[in-house]
Design goal:
single chain; mainly alpha
């Protein structure tokens, strides 16, 4: 599904001028706001929205048995995810800037291959995924959303 979406964006970008202009304008807006853009966009799309939906599902009973519900715990859940993912957005932006520095900003196959190899072959499996998973596990254990026996192992 993601490859299909990426291919659709690629086709639209190259064959629909208004779409290309919109993406270019978004890129200029991001460049103007820098890390603030990362903080807000990733913090809201990966932190606020999904965490809020999870909290609503918990309150409606759709996520099975849970610890006693409290508004404070749900607020801390949403806030901690939002802060974590806001910082994650900056972290990823720094990675992409480093890749541009080391590999260039070209669209040729060699540049793309180097960036994909660094991102998917090194950064994601060895650093990104473990750190994000440990952060989420820490949040869940701290707020009592993971089983106590599981959290006590850490």
């Amino acid at each position: 599904m993601l490859w299909g979406l990426a291919f659709t964006v690629l086709i639209l970008y190259h064959f629909v001028p208004r779409f290309a202009k919109g993406l270019n304008d978004l890129g200029e807006f991001k460049n103007h706001w820098g890390y603030y853009f990362d903080l807000v966009s990733v913090g809201s799309s990966a932190g606020v929205v999904p965490s809020s939906l999870m909290s609503v599902r918990r309150f409606c009973g759709f996520m099975g048995p849970a610890p006693p519900l409290s508004l404070l715990r749900e607020f801390l859940f949403i806030a901690s995810h939002s802060i974590m993912f806001s910082l994650y957005g900056v972290w990823i932006d720094i990675l992409f800037q480093l890749q541009n520095y080391f590999f260039g900003a070209g669209e040729d196959l060699n540049t793309i291959a180097h960036k994909v190899a660094m991102d998917q072959g090194f950064f994601c499996p060895l650093f990104d995924v473990p750190v994000i998973q440990m952060s989420l596990l820490y949040i869940d254990c701290s707020l009592g959303y993971a089983s106590y026996s599981f959290c006590s192992q850490f």
